[in-house]
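INTERNAL AUDIT FORM
Audit reference: QA-55
Scope: verify that the stored structure record matches its stored sequence.
Auditor: D.O.
Record contents follow.
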Amino acid sequence: MKPKLKVFEEFSKALLPHEARYLQSLANFQDAEKRNVFQNLVDNSLNPEQESPFDPDIDKRKYHHIKTWAEHRLSLRDVDKVADWLLDFDKKLALDLVTSEEEKAVLDYVKNYREITFNFQILYRILRDYRSYLLIRMRYDDHVIILDFLEKWKEVYVRANEIQEKLYQATTEITDQFTKSENSSAYWEKWLHKVFASKNINGNNRYKAFILLAFMYNNTGNLEKLQQIFDKIDGFFNKGTLYCRRLLYNYYSSRVLLHSKQRDFEAAVYYGKLSIRQLNEDTLMYINNLVSIYLRLDQQKKALNLLEDYRSIYENTHNDLQKIIYISYYLRALNELNLSRKAENIAIYFLQKYETEILKLRWHHFFTSYFTALLNNENYAAILQLDKKYSLTEKELTRKGSVNYVPNILWAFSVAAFLENKISEEKLFSNISESLADVDITDHNREFIEKNVKILSKNLPELKVFFKSYLRK
């Protein structure tokens, strides 16, 4: 790397694809060298695996100009930076520390306000406080500017708050369906689509509606509808709407799930890597999503290395759900790398520390990995003890009817019971045969079943033959 281009090359490597596309729609460089540098910048962002070096003979000032121009353009569209600016003004307003320059910037922003922005609700709430600040100081002209704004956008603000409250209600019911197997929340779909597609809505509520729709379609396996909403949100990002890196990272992580379900694992890895470029409050979730792809590709060493590289994020997070998912994948990677003794010890410790959270949030995910370690270690008695303590086989019955349902906990328990001489061979095959009646074979769960069969049949080769005949159906 040439020292003179180090800063620009670092900027290039950090530039996200949607940022590059948005900048490309604005660029109009007259200088030929600047045009070439900018096009190289865009191409490298869109095709990171085929990066072309920048010409070191071009004047460094031209690189600086392009970087400054790009950062300024992105900054103007960055909804998080606008939010920070508004909230900083609000704080100074409360402490009576606002400068005349800061007030002028806000007043100019209000006078030029033409469309509902991402942070509209924050802006409106702050301006309601600002009007009193102006009035008590008898600044009547400025007060009129703010008052006119509040009157003009009053109905929009009321509607935005109503939508926000309803989105919270929808979030509660949709996530309850996922974590507690509650009744279907599909009736929210039509309303969420209306919110997502509405022209007269702030971007914050629009994006929340998108996240909920994506969550629903991911969990129901409706790939066609999932692709449709991704195509629409992609258009918003390419135009610089809804833009900030926080949202882009979240979006890239969501695309990991989409491409995973489409079995386009190359794309899933591509977006997974994009999603973890920067640390934020959701990084552990993004790590878990990428790890899941590596495990599906049988790239266990990559999965384990990634988990260990981000262990500090896991240790410091307060998100119990993502902690459980992280540990479950960690156990799985260890199991598949023939480190099941280590996996069992970690599982024992984690269960002791997070028993309540596991049973409430993601018991099946955790115990699947834990039982795999116990099966590999031939510790069948421990499986029977865990089932007795937590009624896991009974809990598994509540999962019937869910997408890609596989009663692997029941299978592990039945194998352990047989090998511990608690049930007969006839009962073993009866349990498995009856449970298979509730399983619909899909591309996704076939892969999962085949991996389970390999583990279950370690000391029962006849099981492999039994499942093989079933999977042929």
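Auditor finding: record pair retrieved intact. Residues 29 and 424 are 79 Å apart (CA to CA).
Action required: none
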